[in-house]
Amino acid sequence: MSERASSPCTCFLLRRAARQVSQVYDHALAGAGLGVNQYSLLRHARTPLSLGELAARLGMDRTTLNRNLQPLLRDGLIEDARGEDPRQRVLRITGAGRERLARARPLWRKAQQRIDALLGGQARERLHATLDALDAALAQERQA
Fold first, then answer.
1. What is the pTM (predicted TM-score) of this model?
2. Would you say the C-alpha torsion 64, 67, 73, 79 has a positive or negative sign?
3. How far is Cα 118 from Cα 128, in angstroms, rounded to an integer?
4. What are phi and psi of 89, to 5 degrees?
5. 87 backbone dihedrals φ, ψ, rounded to 5°
6. Cα within 13 Å of Cα(20), Cβ side
7. Where are the alpha helices (DSSP H) in 30-144?
8. Which one of 11, 26, 71, 126 has the fewest beta carbons within 10 angstroms of its own beta carbon?
9. pLDDT by residue (tens digit) across 19-44?
């Protein structure tokens, strides 16, 4: 059994934990043919959004978002349309995407419950509050 290395690097610790949490969700969502990134994209595309708006909501750069959208576009789960401004790209979920999302929702809940059980309610609340505070501080710093 190997000992887990600790680190003073916040990024390393967040990424290591995020990879493991993502694996829990990916495993659960595989039953609906989705990964956690695809599930999140479908959830956010329920309301038509421009590519820029979706990237901002998800905290992704547009290149990464485009790469993650390709399988959803290919499979007809999200459609790409033009906005009022023809240069604007608007993404929205399709009927097939809504059906897939409905199939995935209980699987996502199961993964969420597993993570919640591992953490415990109070630790989960503290973690969410800390991550929200970090996100807000970084967003404020970017705007300054």
1. 0.86
2. positive
3. 14
4. -100, 120
5. -80, -15
6. 8
7. 36-44, 51-58, 62-74, 95-119, 121-143
8. 11
9. 999 999 999 999 999 999 999 999 99
